[in-house]
């Protein structure tokens, strides 16, 4: 059977507010257990939530960025269930009246086609704490630092038809929230987590198949692999004539398999109802308009500007605008170097090689944008040639300092003195008298082929420091005698 | 001493006729002498009280003008008090010592009031008789065989017996007004949002409101002055400006229009109570007020609406009592589920468990629309009834409860009869308007309270109306023999 996969995603993005969604406690990562807490986060009797207006602003920004309807009246609701790291016995979330309603965004697929993915809604909710099962000898430790951290849950329509589309969508969401500066996008620290809804149906069938939900996948690579694995699992069952059980599953990256967590039958009745401790959030059109007017440049707009302003190709503009960090890095290099095309080539070429080899993000680059820009300046002004520059970049990556420091320390400066170059070339010609004879006896076509040999010898003699632009005319003149 | 008002004590404290330390010692002695019979206190804070009294004496010597400075008061045991046991009269919180102070008690401390202790109540404020307490029933000082009302029964009994000058209470469906009526004292439930709920252990968040319980309307005004007003820690607390609640207490009542809802004088109202209320209304007519019959047609729907909304909110509010972080945890739990089930099963009393179950049911999938949403719609109708009424009248009057205090144990096996106790008070909480109970007479030897209801944020008007009545009558000065004898 030819199966079509249907994928919908729920992405939890942690908003980068200073304080929590309903308390003044800090949201910083990695603090001592239970230190980033107030009465509210601990679920103390009598403590009451106070809504963080910064989280509201961020949610509205996101809504604007995905062309969504903004909920002018949104309502917090309680999702009731018992869990030791859920201190109040309910999670404050939004149900019937989310802050962000229907919207959409466009993703570009590998073949260059653009696909529109629907956003069903995005709502604000508080995170729970963390249960720690190690180090407590048969007991469970609870850390409430994360309790009440603000999350934006972004729910997509079931519009994706492959693992690749799903990853492209998650990357676009990642790109948008980091561009907006409302989420640090750090998936390893759990700042962005993903629940994947997957079902299969025979190609051509209108009706959706039974879906499973894979919870809490936290890297682009795992999302792709989890989807492939789950597609395979579901296809095997269906092709054996079996039925898919609607359930929640977990992806285990070590074994590359998904495992059942709980079935629909064990699902909680969350008994949602409007939270009586919080008033409905009423927005004015003025507030929404002001946020819209001050929205930062988004990935698509940035790519367009890179094409028009820097004359980059569509492909280059796409790569360099994929993340805000990459775009900012590139623009800084271009500014310092004064040559955007050269900057684009080096960021996407040489620098990316180092990043990929060490598995680092652009934000972790050992060479700063300013340093790389400084290197390119020295190519532009003929202090070094491109080949030498690559060696300088390696030294820079190893922390040996700025381009100028390395060029100085290693004596890599190009020789640009005409007299010095001329005498050096003469020396090379003298040492290769037979080849010079041969050259002079050859026709023009042959000569063109032979010039490379002399060029190589000159560069070798100059230890790469001779400026090739200057060498060529002098070499030609002396060869012809 | 029992009769002394906040105003007269404040005068004496400033004239150095008595110090706050002496006053506090007197009250602590009375508690020791009488509370064995009443059981109105869960915790008496002798040392804290005397230290606070000493500080208050210094404050007064330094020229403090706060009416509450040096005045010994008691707090219902659901206000969190920093470092002082706060139980909500529940086994669940039998060992809970809050690390912070509620806004209400904090503001009273800032006004210089002295905390004598924490008063008994129905567990988690659920009850109309103060029989649902882990620490035992409270007795009515007018008749030790009878209930003091609930849920703020300890506060009411303590004030009536002269064990404190005044007390705080909370009112979710009548919990200040009904015990005030049963014990012959004055009690005010302010407009929802007038007083911060921060640090009040929640029963039903959209209905809970704290207020004063004292010997007179004037005393209530002094306490309200201290506790009312915006608090950034409570999102539902109103930013409407407070008034000077004592400034217009003496304003004449000529031209005041009193609405008498016919639904408050129908079947089920005890004859003795009805007579007292009618006589009180006549007294107001003598003071220049006019009377108009009005209708609050949805009154009978307030009981079903309340008993869906309040338990629904409670079922969620009380989820945090899970044995994990504080309070009661069962012995030797086998696993997580066992810990939850036994901690909550053993920690909560019967009435609390009943309301949690009712609320859980009402919010369940498939029942939510039929119960919770419908109850909310009724709540809007009830509110509209009052809004319409206040277009025609200045205040509304009626009884607080259908009867006077009933016998201990008389209604414990008849929950419907117990819930009917609240018929005249519930709708006020559902609408969110302010209302008072003031002593208006006696029926068969037990006090009867008159209920005065006002428009939103009309607390000053209510206090004025009540004060004028108390200037013209002496019901509020009557003391139970138990208090007189001491």
Fold and architecture overview:
- The complex is a heterodimer of chains A (481) and B (486).
- Chain A is of the alpha+beta class.
- Helices cover 41% and strands 19% of the residues of chain A.
- Chain A has 3 domains: 10-186 and 261-290, no CATH class; 297-410, no CATH class; 418-480, Arc Repressor Mutant, subunit A.
- Chain A has an 8-stranded mixed sheet with strand order 5-6-9-1-10-11-12-13. A 3-stranded antiparallel sheet of chain A has the order 4-3-14, with no helix packed on it. A two-stranded antiparallel ribbon of chain A has the order 2-15.
- In chain A, α5 (299-310) packs across α6 and α7 runs parallel beside α9 (369-380).
- The longest helix of chain A is centred in the middle third of the chain and has 20 residues, at 220-239.
- Chain B is globular and about 65 Å long.
- The mean pLDDT of chain B is 96.
- Chain B has 16 helices and 11 strands.
- Chain B is an alpha/beta fold.
- Chain B has a single domain, classed as Alpha-Beta Complex (Amidase signature (AS) enzymes), CATH 3.90.1300.
- An 11-stranded mixed sheet of chain B has the order 1-3-2-4-6-5-10-11-9-7-8, sandwiched between helices.
- Chain A binds chain B through residues 39, 42-51, 78, 80, 82, 84, 87-90, 142, 269, 271-273, 276-279, and chain B through 78-80, 86, 88, 93, 96, 98-100, 102, 197-202, 204-206, 232-236, 312-313, 315-316, 318-322, 324-326, 336, 340, 360, 363-365, 368, 372.
- Chain A: Keywords: ATP-binding, Ligase, Nucleotide-binding, Protein biosynthesis.
- Chain A: This is Aspartyl/glutamyl-tRNA(Asn/Gln) amidotransferase subunit B.
- Chain A: It catalyses: L-glutamyl-tRNA(Gln) + L-glutamine + ATP + H2O = L-glutaminyl-tRNA(Gln) + L-glutamate + ADP + phosphate + H(+); L-aspartyl-tRNA(Asn) + L-glutamine + ATP + H2O = L-asparaginyl-tRNA(Asn) + L-glutamate + ADP + phosphate + 2 H(+).
């Amino acid at each position: 059977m030819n199966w079509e996969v249907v994928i919908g995603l729920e992405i939890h993005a942690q908003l980068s507010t200073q304080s929590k969604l309903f308390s003044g406690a800090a949201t910083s990562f990695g603090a001592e257990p239970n230190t980033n807490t107030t009465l509210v986060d601990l679920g103390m009797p009598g403590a009451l939530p106070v809504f963080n207006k910064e989280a509201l602003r961020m949610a509205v920004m996101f809504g604007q960025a995905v062309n969504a309807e903004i909920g002018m009246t949104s309502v917090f609701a309680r999702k009731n269930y018992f869990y030791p790291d859920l201190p109040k016995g309910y999670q404050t979330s939004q149900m019937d009246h989310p802050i962000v309603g229907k919207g959409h965004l466009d993703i570009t697929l590998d073949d260059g086609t653009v696909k529109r993915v629907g956003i069903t809604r995005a709502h604000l909710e508080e995170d729970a704490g963390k249960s720690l099962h190690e180090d407590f000898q048969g007991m469970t430790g609870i850390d409430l630092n994360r309790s009440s951290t603000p999350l934006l849950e972004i729910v997509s329509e079931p519009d994706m038809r492959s693992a690749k589309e799903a990853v492209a969508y998650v990357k676009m969401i990642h790109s948008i929230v980091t561009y907006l500066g409302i989420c640090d996008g750090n998936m390893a620290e759990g700042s962005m987590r993903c629940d994947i809804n997957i079902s299969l149906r025979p190609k051509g069938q209108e009706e959706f198949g039974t879906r499973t939900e894979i919870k809490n996948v936290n890297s682009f690579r795992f999302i792709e692999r989890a989807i492939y694995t789950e597609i395979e699992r579901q296809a095997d069952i269906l092709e054996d004539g079996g039925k898919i059980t609607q359930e929640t599953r977990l992806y285990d990256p070590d074994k590359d398999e998904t495992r059942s967590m709980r079935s629909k039958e064990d699902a909680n009745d969350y008994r949602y109802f409007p939270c009586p401790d919080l008033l409905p959030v009423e927005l004015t059109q003025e507030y929404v308009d002001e946020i819209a007017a001050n929205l930062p440049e988004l990935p698509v707009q940035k790519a367009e500007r890179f094409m028009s302003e820097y004359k980059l190709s569509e492909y280059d503009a796409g790569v360099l605008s994929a993340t805000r960090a990459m775009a900012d890095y590139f623009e800084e290099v271009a500014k310092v170097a004064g040559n955007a095309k050269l900057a684009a080539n080096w960021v996407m070429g040489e620098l990316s090689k180092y990043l990929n080899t060490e598995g680092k993000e652009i934000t972790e680059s050992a060479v700063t944008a300013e340093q790389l820009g400084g290197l390119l300046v020295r190519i532009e002004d003929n202090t070094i040639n491109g080949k030498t520059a690559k060696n300088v970049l390696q030294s820079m990556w190893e922390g040996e300092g700025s381009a100028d420091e390395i060029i100085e320390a290693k004596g890599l400066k190009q020789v640009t003195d005409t007299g010095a170059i001329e005498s050096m070339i003469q020396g090379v010609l003298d040492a290769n008298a037979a080849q010079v004879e041969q050259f002079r006896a050859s026709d023009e076509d042959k000569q063109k082929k032979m010039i490379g040999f002399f060029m190589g010898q000159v560069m070798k003699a100059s230890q790469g420091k001779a400026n090739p632009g200057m060498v060529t005319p002098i070499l030609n003149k002396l060869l012809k005698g | 001493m029992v009769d002394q008002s906040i105003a007269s004590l404040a005068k004496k404290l400033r004239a150095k006729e008595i110090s706050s330390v002496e006053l506090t010692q007197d009250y602590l002695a009375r508690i020791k002498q009488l509370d064995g019979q009443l059981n109105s206190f869960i915790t008496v804070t002798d040392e804290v009280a005397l230290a606070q009294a000493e500080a208050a004496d210094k404050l007064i010597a330094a020229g403090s003008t706060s009416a509450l400075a040096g005045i010994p008061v008691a707090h219902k045991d659901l206000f969190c008090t920093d470092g002082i046991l706060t139980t909500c009269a529940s086994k669940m919180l039998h060992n809970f010592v809050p690390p912070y102070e509620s806004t209400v008690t904090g503001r009273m401390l800032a006004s210089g009031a002295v905390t004598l202790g924490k008063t008994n109540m129905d567990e988690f404020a659920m009850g109309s008789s103060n029989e649902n307490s882990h620490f035992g029933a409270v007795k009515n000082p007018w008749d030790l065989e009878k209930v003091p009302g609930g849920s703020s029964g300890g506060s009411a009994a303590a004030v009536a017996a002269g064990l404190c000058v005044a007390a705080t209470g909370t009112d979710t469906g009548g919990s200040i007004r009904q015990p005030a009526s049963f014990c012959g004292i004055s009690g005010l439930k302010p407009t929802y949002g007038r007083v911060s709920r921060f640090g009040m252990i929640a029963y039903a968040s959209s209905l809970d409101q704290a207020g004063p319980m004292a010997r007179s309307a004037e005393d209530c005004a002094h306490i309200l002055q201290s506790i009312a007003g915006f608090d950034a820690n409570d999102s539902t607390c109103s930013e409407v400006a407070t008034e000077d609640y004592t400034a217009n207490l003496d304003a004449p009542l000529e031209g005041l229009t009193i609405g008498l809802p016919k639904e408050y004088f129908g079947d089920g109202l005890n004859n003795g109570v009805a007579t007292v209320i009618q006589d009180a209304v006549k007294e107001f007519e003598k003071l220049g007020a006019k009377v108009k019959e009005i209708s609050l047609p949805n009154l009978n729907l307030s009981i079903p609406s309340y008993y869906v909304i309040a338990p629904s909110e409670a079922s969620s509010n009380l989820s945090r009592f899970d044995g994990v972080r504080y309070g009661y945890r069962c012995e030797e739990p086998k696993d997580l589920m066992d810990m939850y089930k036994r901690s909550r099963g053993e920690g909560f009393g019967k009435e609390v468990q009943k309301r949690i179950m009712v609320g859980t049911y009402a919010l369940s999938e498939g029942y939510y629309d039929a119960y919770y949403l419908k109850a909310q719609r009724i709540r809007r109708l009830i509110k509209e009834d009052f809004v319409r009424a206040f277009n025609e009248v200045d205040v509304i009057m009626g009884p607080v409860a259908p009867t006077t205090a009933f016998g201990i144990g008389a209604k414990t096996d008849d929950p419907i009869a117990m819930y009917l106790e609240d018929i005249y008070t519930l709708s006020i909480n559902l609408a969110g308007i302010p209302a008072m109970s003031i002593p208006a007479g006696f029926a068969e030897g037990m006090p009867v309270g008159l209920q005065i209801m006002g428009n939103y944020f009309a607390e000053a008007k209510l206090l004025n109306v009540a004060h004028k009545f108390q200037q013209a009558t002496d019901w509020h000065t009557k003391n139970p023999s138990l208090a007189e004898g001491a």
